[in-house]
Amino acid sequence: MAGFESENAGMNENMDDVKTSNMQNSVPTGIKIQTINLNAWFGAKQALKDINLSIKANAVTAIIGPSGCGKSTFVRCLNRMHELVPGSRSSGKVLLDGQNIYSKEVDPVLIRRRVGMVFQKPNPFPTMSIHDNVAAGLRLTGLKKGKNLDEVVRHSLEQATLWDEVKDDMKKPGTSISGGQQQRLCIARAIALQPEVILMDEPCSALDPAATAKIEELIVTLKEDYTVVVVTHNMQQAARVSDFTAFLYVGELIEYGSTWSIFENPKSELTEKYITGRFG
Amino acid sequence: MSPRLSGDNLFKTLTALLAVSAAAILMITAYELFVGSLPVLQKFGIYFFTGTKWNPVQTMVNPEIYGALPYLLGTLVTSAIALLIGVPLSIGIAIFLVEMAPRTLRVSVSYLVDMLAAVPSVIYGLWGYFVLRFWLLDYVEIPLSRYLGWIPIFGGTPQGLDVLNGGVILAIMIIPTVSSISREVIQAVPNSIREGAYSIGATKWEVIRNWVLSYGRSGIFGAVILGLGRAVGETMAVTMVIGNTIGPSAIPTSLFKPSQTMASLIANNFLEATPGTLELSAYIGIGLFLLLLSLSINVIAQVMVTRVLKVKGGAVE
Amino acid sequence: MTSYTYRKFKNKLFLALSLGCVIIAAVPLLSILIEVILKGAPELSIKFLTQTGGVIGSSDAGGIGPAIQGTLILIGLTCLISMPFGVMSGIFLAEHGNNKYTSAYAAWMRIFNNALTGVPSIVVGITVFAVVVLTLGHYSPLAGAVALSFIAIPIVARTTEESLKLVPNSVREASLALGVRNWRTTVSVVLPDARKGLVTGALLATARIAGETAPLLMTILGGQYFSQGFGQPMDALPLRIYRDAFLPYSNFQAQAWGAALFLILIVLSLNIGVRAASSGWLRK
User: Fold this and answer.
1) Quick check: B72 pLDDT over 60?
2) Strand A88-96 to strand A99-100: parallel, antiparallel, or no bridges (unpaired)?
C-alpha cells in the first residue's frame, strides 16, 4: 500500500533524528506514543527486542501475536507498570507526546494518570463501592466529596455504558456485579482520570460473548476522546475494533500497519501464517 | 488376624487416643484451677473479681481478704501499652518485608524477627531490670515527669520499675507474633488489587495504605488479638520489671507507678503460700482468671486469622 | 505545597517510617545481645560451668553447674515424655484428618491443640503443682518435665502434622501398592520421609522449653545443689538467672548474666539447628 510505505519510510528517517536530538518537541502529527528501541527483560529472560512503534492518536491500535510474544509486556511498558515486577528491566525510550516517560525526572505516578490501563481479569476494588471505585483515582488527587465528584463519576460510567445498569446500586461493592459489568467499571475507573491513552490488556478474554460484544462497541466509541491500545489474542476482534495493528512474535515487532493492510495484504510471511491460523 | 484387631486399627486407635493429649491437658488444667479456686471464690464471691484489697495474713485489724481487680487492671494496662507501641512497629516491619525490601534484606530482617522471638522471657526481664530501666528513666520518665508531670498518667516519682517498663518489654515481645502474621496477611493480598491501584496513579504508600491494608484489615486485626493474647499471658519478663506492689496501691493510675499483673502476682507469691490454705486458693483463682482471659482472646484470634488466611484472597475474588 | 508534592512527601515519609520500624526493633535485640555478651562473657570459666553456687552473700559466687545439669535433665525428660504424645497426635491428625469418619474428631483435637498453645505458662505451672507436686508431696524434676511437656506437646503435634502432610501422596500410594499395611506405611515409609520436619519440630519445642521459667517455679523449685533424683527439687538455668538477678550482691548478679549468656547460646544454637534442618520447610 503506497500510503503505508511512505509512512514507514518517514518513520525510519525520523528515528535517526530522534536518536541524536535531546527532546523531540515537534512530533510527526498524529502520533501519541512512540517507542524507540524498546527492550524489556524479566530477570535474564528478554521479553521485548528493539521495538520501534508509533501509535496514532485518537485511533485504536491492536497488538496481536501468539501467547508469550510479549504483547502484555509491551503495553505495560507504555505506562511503566512493567517495572513493578521484581527483577524486571527495560531500556530504550517511550515518547508520550514527544517526552520520554522513562527519563529520570519523570514520575511514573504522573504517567499512569495520563496513560490508564484495563486488565485481563477485571479487578475492581472489592473493598470499595461502585461509586468509590470510579472515584478512587480522583480522590487521590484531592477531589473530595461533593457534586463535582459525583458528576465526574456519573459521566465516566455513562461513557463506559454502565451508568444505566448500576445507577441505583452505586453503594454496592464493586465486585457485586457481573464480569462484563466489572470490566466496564474498570474502564470507567480509568476514564474518570481523563487520561490521554487507554491501554487494554486482553480486556475481553475473561468475558462471555455478550459482554465481549458490549466492550468491543465501547472501544470503538472511546477513540473519539482517547488513544486506545488493545492487546488481543483474538484476530477477529482485532479486525473488528482496530484501525492499526501491530504483530509481535517472540518479542519482536514483525509488522505494523493499518488493520486493513495487515489482514488483507500482509508483507511478512510470518504475519500471513499467523493471520491464516497456521500457528499460535 | 481378625479385621477388628488388625495392626491398622490398633495403630489408628492408638494415635487417636494420643491425639486427645492436648484436650486432656486442657481439661486437667481447667479442672485443677476450678477446684483449687473454689475455696476463695466461695468465700469472697464477686469481691474476688472487683475488690482491690489483698491481705494473706489475718490480723486483728486486717482480715484476710483477696481482691484481684488491681492485677486485672495491671494486666490490661500493660497489654494496652504493648499493643499501642508494638502493633505499629509490627505492621511497619511487615510492610517493609513485603512491599519494600529487596530479597537479601528480607532474609536478614526475618532472622532479626526470629531472634527476637527466640530470646527467653527471663532474659528480656534481666535486660529490662538492668538496662532498659535506666534508658527509660533517663530519656523518657524523668523528662516527662518534669515537664508533663501534672498530667495524671505521668504522675508520681519515676523509679524505672513500673507499668511503662512492663508495657515496653511486652511490646518488644509481641513484635514477632504480630509482624509475622501481618506479613502473611499482606502477602496474601492479591496482586491484581495492587495493579489496579497503581494503574490509577497511586503512590506506593497510597497503594499500601488505601488498598493493601484495607483488604487485609481483618487478618491484621486477628494478628493484633493474638499479640494481645501473648501479652496477657507473659510472665517472667513483666515480673522482673513491673515493681511488684500489692493491693490498692497496685492499681495502675500512672505510667510511672510500680504495679502488678495477674501473672506476676502468681510468680512472685505462689511459693509463699502454704498448700491447703485460702491464700494458695487465691493464687489459683488468679490463675483461673488468667486462663479464662487468655483462652478467650486466643481462640477468637485463631478463628479470625485462620478464616482470613485459609480463604486466600478473601471471599470476593 | 501542591497536592502532588504533598503526596510525594507522604510517600517518602511513611516508607521511611516503615524502615524505621525495622531499625527500632533491632535496637533491643542488639542491646540484649551486647549486654549479655559483655556482662556474661567474663564469667565463663570451667569453674563457673561446673561448680555449685556459693553461699549467698559471700564473696565467692560459685558456679552454675547445677543449673546447667538441671536444664539438660529437663530437656531430656521433656523430650522423652512429649515426643511420643506429640508425634502420635500429629500422625493421627495428618493421616486421618480427612477421613470422613474421623475428620470432625480430628478437627476438634486440632482446635484443642491450638488452644493449648494459648495457655500461659504460669498457669501450666499451677496445674502441674496441683497434679504432681501435691500428689508426690515434694518438688521434683518429674514435675518440671511434665509441665514443660504440656507446653511442648502441642508444638510437636503441630509440626509433626505439618511435615507429614508435606510428604507427597505418591509415596504412600507406592508403599500401599506393594501390599504394605497402612500403619506400617506410616511408620516405615512416611515418617522417615518426614524426618527433616520432625527433627525441626523437636528442636523448635526444645528451644522453646529450654528458656521457660514460670512453670519451673512451683515444680522444681530451684536450689544450689546438683540434682539428687526425683525426690528432690532441682535447679535450672532460667530459674538461676531469675533468682541471682535479684540478689543484692553484684557477684551473684554477674552470675545471672553469665547464666544468661550460656542459655542464649543454647537457645540460639537450637534455632540455628532448626534453620539448618529445615531450610525451606518452614513456612516463613
Assistant:
1) yes
2) antiparallel
- Does the distance separating the beta carbons of B271 and C217 come in below 8 Å? yes
Instruction: Render pLDDT for B41-70 as a digit per residue (tens, 0 to 9).
Output: 999 999 999 999 999 888 888 889 999 999
pLDDT at C1: 61
Interface residue A144 vs chain C (CB under 8 A):
no
Comparing CB atoms, the residue among A107, A110, A142 nearest residue C3 is A142
Coil, helix or strand for C254? helix
Which positions 124-143 of A are in contact with B (Cβ < 8 Å)?
Answer: 124-127, 136-137, 140-141
**Contact of A52 with A35, CB cutoff 8 Å:** yes
Q: How far is C88 from chain B (nearest CA, A)?
A: 5
Q: Is C46 exposed, middle or buried (0-12, 13-18, 19+ CB in 10 A)?
A: exposed
Q: Which residue has the higher pLDDT, B175 or C110?
A: B175
pLDDT digits (tens, 9 = 90+) for B100-151: 988 889 999 998 999 999 999 999 999 999 999 999 999 999 999 989 988 8
Q: Which three cell numbers stand for residue C18?
A: 516503615
CA distance B208 to B97: 13
pLDDT at A19 over 50: no
Alpha helices for chain C (secondary structure H): 3-40, 46-50, 65-95, 103-116, 121-128, 134-136, 141-166, 169-177, 182-184, 191-193, 195-210, 214-217, 237-245, 250-278
State the pLDDT confidence band at C107, using cuts at 50, 70 and 90: confident
Model confidence at C106: pLDDT above 60: yes
Instruction: Quote the cell numbers at residue C107.
Output: 478437627
Residue B135 grid coordinates = 534508658
What ipTM was predicted for this assembly?
A: 0.91
> Does B254 score more than 70 pLDDT?
yes
Secondary structure (3-state) at B151: coil
Point out the residue among B103, B198, B314 whose CB comes nearest to the CB of A112.
Answer: B198
Provide Rg for chain A, Cα atoms: 19
B 177-206 near C (Cβ less than 8 A): 180, 184, 203-206
Dist. CA C244–CA C225, nearest whole Å = 14
Q: Which residues pair with A229 in a beta bridge?
A: A61, A199
Q: What is the per-residue pLDDT for B164?
A: 95
- What was the pLDDT predicted at B3? 59
**% of residues, chain B, pLDDT over 90:** 72
Mutate to test the interface with A, among B97, B105, B189, B200 (most CBs of A within 10 A): B200
Mean pLDDT for the stretch of residues B13-39: 90
Shortest CA distance from B191: residue in chain A:
A123
pLDDT at A9 over 60: no
**8 A C-beta contact, residue B162 and residue B252:** no
Residue of C nearest to A141 (CA): C3
pLDDT digits (tens, 9 = 90+) for A58-96: 999 999 999 888 999 999 999 999 999 988 999 999 999
- Cα distance from A205 to chain B (closest Cα, Å)? 16
Q: Report the DSSP pairing between strands A244-249 and A60-64.
A: parallel
List of long-range contacts for B292-298, beta carbons under 8 Å, 24+ apart: B293/B75, B293/B232, B293/B262, B294/B229, B294/B232, B294/B233, B294/C118, B294/C119, B294/C120, B294/C123, B295/C115, B295/C118, B295/C119, B297/B225, B297/B228, B297/B229, B297/B232, B297/C118, B298/B226, B298/B229, B298/C114, B298/C115, B298/C117, B298/C118
Q: What is the pLDDT of residue A1?
A: 37
Give the nearest partner residue to C3 out of A107, A110, A141, using CB atoms: A141
Mutate to test the interface with C, among B11, B121, B122, B212 (most CBs of C within 10 A): B122
CA nearest to B98 within chain A: A86
Dihedral angle sign, alpha carbons of residues C235, C238, C243, C249: positive
- C98 three-state secondary structure: coil
Nearest-CA distance from C7 to chain A in Å? Answer: 9
Residue type, C147: A
